[in-house]
Amino acid sequence: MLMLTHEARLQALREELKRRDLQGFIIPISDEHMSEYVGEYAERLAWLTGFGGSAGFAAVTLDHAAIFVDGRYTVQVRDQVDGNLFDYRSIPGDSLGGWLKEVCENGARIAYDPWLHTWNWVASLEKQVEPAGVTMVPADSNPIDTVWADQPAPSDAQAIVHEEDLAGRSYADKRAAIADWLTQEGHDAVVIPALDSIAWLLNIRGGDVAHTPVALSYVIAHKDGRAELFIAPEKVTPELTQHLGNAVVIRDRDQFETALGEFSGKSVSVDPDFGVVGIAQALRAGGANFTFKQDPTILPKAVKNAREQQGHRDAQAQDGAAVSRFLRWLEETAPSGEVDELTAAAKLEGFRRAHGDLRDTSFDTISAAAGHAALPHYKVDEDSNIPIPPGSIYLVDSGGQYPAGTTDITRTVWVNSADGSARPSAEMIDRNTRVLKGHIQIALAVFPQGTTGGQLDILARQYLWEAGVDYAHGTGHGVGSFLGVHEGPQRIAKPSGGQAGTSQELFAGMILSNEPGYYKPDAFGIRIENLVLTEERQIDAAEGRYLGFETLTFVPLDRKLIDKTLLTESEIAWVDEYHAKVRALIAPQLSGDDLAWLERETEAL
Predict the structure, then answer these.
(1) pLDDT for residue 500
(2) Statement: residue 537 has pLDDT above 70
(3) 3-state helix, strand, coil in the chain (%, to 5)
(4) b vs e for 255-274, b when ≥16 Cβ sit within 10 Å of the residue's Cβ?
(5) What's the whole-number mean pLDDT along residues 472-486?
(6) Would you call 238 exposed, middle or buried from its count of C-beta atoms within 10 A (0-12, 13-18, 19+)?
(7) H or E element in which residue 532 lies
(8) Which of 127, 66, 121 is nearest to 93 (CA)?
(9) Nearest to 178 by CA among 226, 211, 128
(10) pLDDT of residue 1
(11) Does the pTM exceed 0.85?
């Protein structure tokens, strides 16, 4: 089949808009479940524009087009998207509503796919553009799907059972808890569109979305404890049917919209962050009284039970051995100058597959050499791939999906020259050490119950601030249990700017990343990331309940980038104790040169 250029694709979309008497269309990175990662069939923005980032959207009118991304993708969008076809717009400085008012005439009808946007998002945009005479119109079908001739079909991977000895709690108990919540809140049912919420609730997993083991489906849970699972028939196995039993009715995914019309006069709850306009429209058309409330699985999913906590420890032990073997290999081979970013990423995945029950990577590996390491969300591909220069910093942010848990780790290392004479600059060592100091302060933090992630964020930044520098991303995100590597509602980040999750109280059992960084444009980047488990701390004579963090990730830190004179005695003690734990946990899994490397890298400072 002839591959259309992006110019031809844009023209085909405009012709389809004319046929529908529409003057524009909004294209997000999204699916019907508001997932972070989407299946290939839903990668409409990438198909239309060529943009491969994980956040952003485009707007196309009959005469204009623009792509909107945040500061993480300023460089990437210019590399991947033709500036002759799309204007580059930066959010939050530029708003979609403002752009539409600039380019649209009075009376313009701008369409959106009601299954790809939330109710609140559309309501906010309508409020912005209505004064200019612009009307937002829900499309009957997505016009890109009409013109995308070779659009992949949704995945037909079968759903699998997530065994209770890994989940730590029966799905019957979880359903009962949701039924209790519905009774307390006065609702008859709750619609659950979020794929990871469905996976957690029913103790199932799937293979429909890269990096996240979920199955394309919907759930409607009722206050009497029953539930309906809407899933394509080809995904249903006898094992799944037996697992779900009689209390969960399995229905075809195509029946979901019809089922939403069966709640006339009843009260139904929908999460505002995952309940798309299409769901709300179907409920309203059927006469339901719907209310927007947080999905009742969100918080219990985030608070890991004892079995999930141990599963994470087990997965981290496997992962730590694989990453340690990779770093030893990198130290030995990269000084030749013959290792590139893609080769390194593939080698790391190979070590993971050889060393544990890896089902998938938990996200696209950030394999970033030299100036690419200064891009916090860099994604290497055939076009951007470069050799790792000897005498430079290399940053690798990666993770694995294991049945026992989900991992996410970043290490920043110095790549020597072939003759071993290259040394990192004083600036590199200073910045890395300041990042390490902030990382340690989060790891050692003790705080009262009721503390939010936003209140802890300054601990990680304080030593960078002392040097007049900062980093433009959050310090920590939640992590799922063989689910999403980015899981809410908890987050450690600056509380300003309305960042989601920063006002969420932290509870024992929540897992977060601890990942401060520093980035010098076009030169180098630094990030140190471990996962941590929120746990209760016993303090003599404590007035109230206090929490702290247990570090879960165990891989050596690069000693060549640490200035011991900048560390306090307690910080040196933390590094030495950390490395002693790395050796105790990882050494039994290694042998030969790998073991010798680990023993050297974990010696006391």
Answers:
(1) 63
(2) yes
(3) 40, 20, 40
(4) ebbebbeebeebbbbbbebb
(5) 96
(6) exposed
(7) strand 530-537
(8) 66
(9) 226
(10) 45
(11) yes
Q: What pLDDT does residue 61 have?
A: 97
Write the pLDDT tens digit of every residue in 303-362. 999 999 999 999 999 999 999 999 999 999 999 999 999 999 999 999 999 977 999 999
Q: How confident is the model at residue 2 (pLDDT cuts 50, 70, 90)?
A: low
Integer Cα distance of 190 and 201 in angstroms: 13
Task: Name the strands in the sheet holding 487-492, side by side, starting at the edge strand that comes first in the sequence.
Answer: 446-448, 546-551, 530-537, 511-514, 476-478, 487-492
Residue 281's identity, in one-letter code, is Q
Based on DSSP, count helices (H) and strands (E) in the chain, helices before strands: 19, 28
Q: Are 403 and 359 in contact (CB under 8 A)?
A: yes
Q: How far apart are CA 545 and CA 548, in angstroms?
A: 11
Return the ∠ at Cα 29 (arms to 24 and 34), rounded to 5°: 110
| DSSP bridge pairs for 209 | 212
| CB-based burial label for 165 (10 Å; 0-12, 13-18, 19+) | exposed
Q: How far is CA 592 from CA 145, 320, 471, 502, 589, in A?
A: 54, 17, 39, 45, 11
489: preceding bond cis by omega (within 30 degrees): yes
> How many residues in the chain?
605
Give pLDDT, residue 54: 84
Rounded alpha-carbon distances, angstroms, from residue 333 to 165, 326, 388: 41, 10, 10
The angle that helices 306-333 and 341-355 make with each other, rounded to 10 degrees, is 130
Strand partners, 212: 209
501 pLDDT tier (thresholds 50, 70, 90): low
Nearest Cα to 416, choosing from 394, 385, 386, 384? 394
